[in-house]
Design a protein that fits this description.
By secondary structure, the protein is α+β, with helices and mostly antiparallel strands. It has ten helices and 21 strands. The strands form four sheets. The chain has a six-stranded mixed sheet, sandwiched between helices. A five-stranded antiparallel sheet has the order 2-1-4-5-6, with helices on one face. The two termini are 50 Å apart. The structure holds adenosine-5'-triphosphate. This is ABC transporter ATP-binding protein.
Length: 393
Amino acid sequence: MSGFNVQGLTKRFGATTVVDDLDLSVEDGEFVVLLGPSGCGKTTTLRCLAGLERPEGGHISFGDRTVFDSGRHVDIATHKRNIGMVFQSYALWPHLTVRKNIGYPLKVRGRKDALRGGAVERAAEMVDTQALLDRYPAQLSGGQQQRVAVARGLVAEPDLVLFDEPLSNLDARLRDQVRTQIHQLHQRLRFSAVFVTHDQSEAFALGDRLAIMKAGRLEQLDTPQRVFDEPASEYVAAFIGMGNRLELTRGEAGWRTESGEVVDLADRTPERGAGDRAVARLRKQDLHLLRSSDQAPAHHVVLGATLVTTEFGGRHYDVLVDVGGQQLSLEADTREHGAWLREAAEGAPVLVGFAPSDVRLFAPDLDEKPQTGLALTGAEARTGGTHTVASGV
Ligand SMILES: Nc1ncnc2c1ncn2[C@@H]1O[C@H](COP(=O)(O)OP(=O)(O)OP(=O)(O)O)[C@@H](O)[C@H]1O
């Protein structure tokens, strides 16, 4: 197995540039996840690696073998790139048994030795499908079909395994099972992999590194922990779960919300750029709901708010509040807040608190309006009772 290197990869469809001068290096045995919203170019990048799309420019090498180079007119055919692929749609041959489906990559590579030597049975065993070898795909469940597709992707010990949203068609329980199985297989076999998804929890669970794409370019390439702790831009922050957005303006007394409440962030400045406007991003798990009469935790920023909606979620309530015209979502523990929240009416005054260290502050970028489906603008501004602000950050 070997890693790969991509330089200046550019792919256009007509006048639209879908992959834009992309550089990406993956170490031998590394599992890299391409993460981003629909249409940002993830699948096209993967298809260029596989040789299923011909890029307009760039260089791709697997280990020290060049498989594509626009300048030198090198373009190695897909079946000669020694890759394994696992697709969202499973893409099994319906007229072939599981045994023949798994063995297919060995057959097209002329690897009769491996076919006779038990490679198919070993691959089937890796994903618990050895009992299904004589069945046809139509006789399998979705989860079983995808496990067979994973076995087929790995059977020929390819240089690189490409996964294109392989879990998207599975229901939630199976998705977790197959995800764990792929993770365990990678821990054991250490194949190099690129895995495309738009699901941040899949990306965090599987990736050694995450490559977050925006409009055909890499916005951030880093470990899951670093992406989680230090998103490189508001776009990344929004995409990895920091769905709450609070627009701030700096005055003499520091940062303020649009309705004028002080947000004491000590001397924090936006991660990129300077200026008197900033956008605070926060995870819903980092926002605390308080009654107007509650004592705020020490060193927390506390803002006046009104209740918008409350939905029962079992252990917690999903709560939407309005802070001076900006809506924030949070989770309120049912045992702690259930008694009063059940009775609270829409529009009731509440408080919202958060630790300044949980805030990520970005320079505003009009390109980077919410990705999260939250209606954050245009909400009716309601006054939020007494505005308490904790200090001493
Ligand atoms: N064969 C094609 N011809 C024209 N446009 C295409 C073609 N394939 C993809 N596109 C366009 O290129 C853009 C990127 O598509 P791509 O499938 O790479 O995105 P993606 O990030 O994988 O999205 P998704 O998660 O929805 O699959 C999209 O706007 C898509 O419509």
